[in-house]
């Protein structure tokens, strides 16, 4: 028997003996109990997907090859998908506005973002969205919003209807974003696909990318938090806090995400607090020449180290429920021409797949928390 265990047993016997001798009962010792930390389960657990040509999706995929490279997304090893969301990245906003048909696009949409690819995921219960923009197309966002923002919104809505998908806005103008134009884009999209709290209509899912914290894309972040991401009158479903320039440590990731929750009252105009239920946090699975633990080693990953914090992050001026919505991972298959890919043997079952099991990711994605 362990010596500490023996001492406790002997001590208990002495107390009982003393009680029998004196006729009194020993007073129980109060043991402090730590209060339970309120938390919410992860609801969004997704991957941005760049196809096999560094995010252009400019070729029609052979679906046998596509399955070989992406099977880990639909099967984490037990027949269950690793994610409940895939975001195909990127649509060029100016080509979409102009309805461009060329070697890589049809009516403004990349030829690789087709029904076969969408159905590959949706047939396994995985929600699909298309991301419009990305850092490469920032100038094209500016031009398209200036030319006809409302028409761009209508064309995005029509593309969503055609493929049965949602739309993500990735507009990375950090100095002078056209917020009036972006408001017109969103209003036109919502006229076709109204906000749907139930999540039942995939085309109604409209989201926005913001920076990892509040210190970049400041004007966009301020306006979106005040006007599109409120819990009282939501316009967008949620935001994605994107990856920073390199994979953050757990403490840096939490610090970045806390900035959104707290806001920046010292800015002019101030950035208000964002409800934890209104955004996800982004992490790398493949970064430059490195496959990250997020992909192949959940135990040593940032998502493992931040999981408890993310699920219990408390509101700080906006929202009522604890916990961010979940994680987004950058990026599946081939995010750059020179970097690593998540093709075999670098499949992400050991990271994202294990995380899906560990966190009990729901499939299909449920109705999202609204406050």
Strand order of the largest sheet: 1-2-5-6-7-8-9-12
- Rg calc: 24 Å
Just give the CATH class.
Answer: Alpha Beta
Q: Any idea how many domains?
A: 1
Strand content of the residues, in percent? 5-15%
User: What kind of sheet is the major sheet?
Assistant: 8 strands, parallel, barrel
Number of continuous helical runs: 11
Structure overview:
- The chain has helices spanning 3-22, 63-74, 93-98, 115-122, 138-163, 179-192, 218-227, 250-262, 293-296, 302-312, 349-358; strands spanning 44-49, 85-91, 105-106, 109-110, 127-133, 166-170, 206-210, 238-241, 279-284, 286-287, 290-291, 326-332.
- Helix 6 links the parallel strand 6 and strand 7 (206-210).
- Helix 2 (63-74) packs parallel to helix 4 (115-122), helix 5 runs parallel beside helix 6 (179-192) and helix 8 (250-262) packs parallel to helix 10 (302-312).
- The termini are far apart.
- The protein has one domain (42-358): TIM Barrel (Alpha-Beta Barrel).
- The protein has an 8-stranded parallel β-barrel with strand order 1-2-5-6-7-8-9-12, surrounded by 4 helices. A two-stranded antiparallel ribbon has the order 3-4. Strands 10-11 form a two-stranded antiparallel sheet.
- With 371 residues, it is α/β, with parallel strands linked by helices.
- The chain is globular and about 50 Å long.
- InterPro entries: GH (IPR017853).
- Residues 1-26 form the signal peptide.
- Keywords: Signal.
């Amino acid at each position: 028997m362990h010596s500490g265990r023996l001492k406790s047993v002997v001590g208990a016997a002495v107390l009982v003996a003393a009680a029998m001798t004196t006729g009194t009962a020993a007073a129980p010792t109060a043991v402090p109990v730590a209060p339970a930390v309120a938390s919410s389960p992860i609801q969004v657990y997704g991957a941005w997907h760049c196809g096999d040509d560094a995010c252009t999706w400019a070729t029609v995929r052979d679906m046998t090859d596509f399955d070989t490279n992406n099977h880990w997304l639909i099967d984490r090893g037990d027949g269950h998908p690793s994610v409940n969301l895939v975001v195909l990245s990127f649509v060029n906003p100016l080509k979409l506005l102009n309805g461009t048909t060329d070697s890589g696009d049809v009516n403004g949409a990349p030829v690789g973002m087709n029904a076969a690819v969408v159905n590959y995921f949706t047939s396994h219960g995985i929600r699909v969205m298309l991301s419009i923009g990305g850092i490469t197309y920032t100038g094209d966002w500016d031009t398209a919003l200036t030319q006809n923002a409302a028409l761009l919104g209508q064309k995005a809505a029509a593309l969503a209807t055609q493929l049965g998908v949602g739309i993500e806005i990735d507009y990375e103008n950090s100095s002078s974003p056209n917020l009036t134009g972006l408001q017109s884009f969103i209003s036109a999209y919502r006229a076709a696909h109204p906000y749907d709290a139930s999540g039942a209509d995939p085309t109604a899912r409209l989201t926005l990318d913001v920076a990892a914290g509040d210190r970049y894309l400041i004007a966009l972040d301020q306006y979106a938090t005040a006007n599109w991401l409120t819990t009282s009158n939501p316009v967008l479903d949620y935001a994605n806090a994107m990856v920073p320039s390199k994979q953050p440590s757990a403490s840096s990731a939490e610090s970045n995400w806390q900035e959104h929750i707290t806001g920046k009252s010292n800015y002019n105009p101030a950035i208000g607090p964002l409800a934890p239920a209104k955004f996800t946090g982004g992490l790398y699975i493949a970064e430059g020449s490195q496959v990250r633990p997020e992909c192949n080693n959940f135990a040593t990953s940032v998502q493992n180290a931040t999981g408890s914090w993310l699920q219990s992050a408390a509101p700080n001026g906006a929202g009522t429920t604890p916990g961010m919505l979940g994680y987004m991972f950058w990026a599946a298959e081939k995010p750059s021409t020179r970097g690593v890919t998540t093709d075999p043997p670098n499949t992400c079952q050991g990271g994202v797949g294990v995380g899906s099991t560990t966190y009990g990711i729901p499939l299909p994605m449920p109705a999202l928390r609204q406050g």
